[in-house]
Amino acid sequence: MRFDSYHPTINFIYFVSVITCSLCFDHPIFLVISFTASFVYSVKLIGKKAFIFNSILIPLIGMYALWYSYYNHFGVTNLRQNIVGNQITLESLIYGIVLGVIIASVLMWFSCIHKIVSSDKVIYLFGRVSPKLSLFISILLRMVPRIKQRAHTNNIAQQCIGRGINQGNIFRRMKNMFRQISILVSWVTENLTQSSDSMRSRGYTLKKRTAFSIYRFDNRDRSFVIILFICLSVVGMGVLLDQTTILYNPEIIINRITPLSMLFYCAYTFFSLLPFFIQIYGELRLGRLQRKMNQSRWQALRSK
Prior knowledge:
about 0% strand, two-stranded antiparallel ribbon
């Protein structure tokens, strides 16, 4: 049992909710929860590549915070002056870190979306509302890995005639790179045109068109929706009580942390890690079933 096996509507509601919360909440504890949950879940889904990408985002957050504090001057705690004589304040530096963490969290959530939401789910969700929009989104989702594969193929072909992006001096490499970009753009344009004409010939944009789908909203999906909206209701109470935001301008002002605040933190943590828990539970259940099958198979062989 994995999160991608749930109904597409469940996937859509969850990711819209978690990304909205990640964008709107600037409280440090909520930021840490969102960043950690997106980091862990993306690594669980994608593996080593996600870990490398997420790790690169951490120093980029610090670089963005330094750049933001250098050009935005608000706050009352002065740290030092920049080259033009403006003050770099602690408040602007911390708020730059907050913005960087928000952007990094959203990027990691989108990497999870790319792994969970397939093109057939997009067609199912948007096909009846807007067939043209669903066609456009599904083509884009399918095009991203194909562009990467095509660029690699073009580079190998150009290397055979001495025109690879890592062959020659720097000016030669730049010329080869622009040539390969031109080839790739021409291929993408031609492929998009062919895909659009093919789908139009099949009557994809006709009104009242129906599409085959294997998705059914079962009791498991209903249980997930109940748990999801309980968590969102508790987090919504925290929003109404101003527990999810703080002031950074002109000084940092945070609401007092109470025992009730811990309830909001726990609810948001459980909400953010819910797909991760489902993934872990599914893997443990699968492993237990495989062990039972192996044991029964071994007993059958011994009985013979």
